[in-house]
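Appendix B, example 12.
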Amino acid sequence: MLAPLLRLPLVNLASLLEVAAERDPTYAETLQRVRAFAGALRARGVRPGDRVAIQAHNSAAFFEAYFAVAWSGAVLCPLGTRLAEPEIDAILADAEPVLVLRSEDELEALRQATPSNQPAHACEPGASAQLYYTSGTTGKPKGVVLTHANVNAHARAATSALELRPTDVWGHVAPMYHLADAWAIFAMTLAGGRHVYCSAFDPAEALDTFEREGVTVTNLVPTMLQRILAHPGIADFDAGQLRLVMSGGAPIAPEVIRSLINAFGCDYVQTYGLTETSPFLTLGLLTPQERALDLAQRLPLLAKTGRPFPSVELDVVREDGTSVRTDDQEVGEIRARGATVSPGYWRRPEETAAVFRDTWFYTGDLAVRDDAGFVSIVDRRKDMILSGGENVYSTEVENVLFECAGVLEAAVFGVPDPEWGEAVTAAIVARAGVQLDSAAVLAHVRTRLAGYKCPKQIVVVDDLPKTGSGKIQKAVLRERFGSQR
């Protein structure tokens, strides 16, 4: 049913909504509001190529803003809701938007603007559509440019690969200002499915929305997923229509996947990507033969990072650019190229040149490959720990920590050490009502890993520092615990 749609000559983001409006009366009403919204933007002085910055929680108004800004030919610059004012100021100084919308009421007022017949601006495929600022966990945030062609190509590939359908209901639970969720605005619209919203993440609200609205598909970062699975309401949750839960933004432990499948009784797909790639680079989709395996046999496959996303060419390479062996052992850096890869960073030619080289985008993520086509991330290059001359990959240690039943969250990182160079350190968060004994946790780790991989220190903390999208900020942990040694 979707195959003819995927062959349509979609040029810009406005055309995605126009296609949906031709098939669904509700989308036709949305299209009229988007036209009026775009007219209101023009009345506020927005012209093609201008940046429009929006800071908002998940809502129908934010959904329509994505299309209205594209309709007007402008560039949407989403702002995280948890950013501090100096961070906001730095982004605005760099992006130079002509309009900044930070009031939910103002956004809704534009959504309810007087109907008009504002025609869609005829954007070229290579024109900028969105400007996302990276979380800044490694330094000053950079603006990542995504074009209309990038976002269109990703919507088509995701709709096809994930078999999104008109009967699907997408739960916008992860923040819509971040590509952990924003990609689905376009893919689910192309599929003709329904959108429902949680304004901000709360485990109880997410479970209630899933049940009340009949959510069939959603994507959550691992920290959100762990909070939902640890919530008391999960015991009485009726998974109902839920058919697929995806997770990305960080590696996920097999034990968390086991808990998810037992609680939700649905399919799970691991995702991996970056803002620079719109975002997906891999999806952990199993073949029919792999899906037929029992859970114990499927878990190791489901925990892998995934196979290459349809729109990209992906490789894992050594320092000299040659491909690593497909033995699930040799570590290299992931690089990618294709229709969904950004043309570069906003006004940062040197930083663009540093990672976009010879037609490839170098991700900085370290991974292995196997002969079944799976990629498995072992660490970010910046997070790899060099201890006593040995490489320690934080993901491997974190997976073992999650085997301890009382561990809700875990982060492994290196801190400076005069003897080892870097000392492996772990910060863990206990599940509600559990008293964790760090010595007992360490004893378990020592039964599972070589001595040099075991943390020299395990610290139980109340919470872990996170970005607005829920990613753990290891740079903050390194600074905090490194200064205590």
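The CA atoms of residues 404 and 441 lie 7 Å apart. The first helix runs from residue 3 to 6.
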